[in-house]
Amino acid sequence: MVVRKDVKWDLETDVVVLGSGGAALSAAILAADQDADVVMLEKSDQIGGTTAFSGGIPWIPMNRYMKEIGVEDSFEEAKKYITHLTGNKEPDPELVDVFINKGAEMIDYFHENTPLRFSVPRGYGDYYADNPGGKREGRSLDPQPFSLNELGEEWSEKIRRNPIFPPLTLEEGGAADPMDIDFNIVGERMEKNITTMGRALAGALFKAVLDRGVDVHIETPGRELVMNDDGEIIGVVAEKDGEDFFIGARKGVVIATGGFEWNKDLVASFLKGRVTHPQSPAHNEGDGLIMAMEVGAALANMSEAWWSPAFVDPTVEYEGRVYNLIDQPRAGANSIIVNKLGKRFVNEGSTYMDMPKAFYEYDQTTQTYPNEPPVYLIFDQQVKDRQLIATVVPGEDAPDWLPQADTIEELAEKIEIDPEQLKETVERFNENARNLEDPDFHKDKLFFGQMGTGFQGAEGTIGPIEKAPFYAMPIYFGALGTNGGPKINEHGQVINVRGKVIPGLYAAGNAAMGVLGPAYPGAGGTIGPAMTFGYLAGIHVGKSESKDI
Q: What sign does the CA torsion over 366, 367, 372, 374 have?
């Protein structure tokens, strides 16, 4: 933190937005629409942050698109559904109400004032749709294709891309097994620079940012906040071309820099699960969190993250690092997950948010963490023949990095698991699976697992592991991002450790506390609140009075 002592500003504006993901873009647009001058700073050389890298799906109750297809929703249903999942562990219950009420308003605003458009991916429901208040479709929204050529030559190639996702919408299979992909559509869109999912969301919002004349600086990370003698945030010290770059902000600063999952010290200090394989851009190092802590911000939800099992193909790199793959088809038949003892320990059909929570289970008898990764997805040739495994498509020979063997015992030896125990585990599973039963973990019972296997029932999720060769895919402790940070109020204003607003400071997205606490209600459970509170922060900071800087 820098306390103002006649700072000489290199640039003066009304609002500084740190970051360029969904929360940051939303805040910049709304601040500009209140007639504020806005400067956006992005640490990396690409726009879009974790949002562009993701599926780009916001989860928003009562939205206009679900109404258009005749799906009814209400505040009461959404509240009942969310609070069942939060278990009274959300940082501020009133902000759950704010999210439900304002999320649909945010979607309406962007529909009416930006190029951003969505549709409802049919058959893609809340992850716990069979719970009270759940919906079998409608709350998760699929960004429609967007031409990056609309951004102009300077910016059209600057929207961050995911190295795995093809240019297909969620409904078209953009985040699913690629066996049914229409490669004609893929080729045409690539030729025309048309994108989907997270890139489409970020690209459409960034077009709105450019249309409003926002001053965008890439490769310009914020380093410190500037505070005046009255405790007001009046600017940022950034780094530009290796030098300090002082930017004065007459109205305020919005921190939307993403999470801290790539900062090993912060992960060790705060998270209850040690994330070893983050699945987000490596620039998420907690810069905004550190800046907020320096000026006395109170923190909330700090032990939580958007957990996700991580899979690795060591031959695939992204920005100079091995790329940690997102969820794999672990809910399907002819497979189980075992720990280092060779025992099952989790319902393989659970959500990617829930499944890793079993990793940090403590055994009081042995004083160990038996489920600590790596754990293994054990499957047979039936799975290999029908599904994508990491980056290995059916019909390809298994690569050297994927352990395989002709017997379960031999496979166990290769992954250093007790052969007799793994054999016993597989045999017990197989005995029940032949009757389409799983009395131990009820793999076929969860809505999420059923949705991921096309609602085939037990036949899609339970089946014996019996066709050689057998395989073992390591699973690591991953996270799509963290969701703890500075406490905020209904306007996105940051609260200090005394419970008071820090004037001129706002936070949203993964750089702020997760308003839904430990809950992840459905696809977009991170992006929906991020955009909503970015939207609210932008309105409030844009309308605030200018300070003397």
A: negative
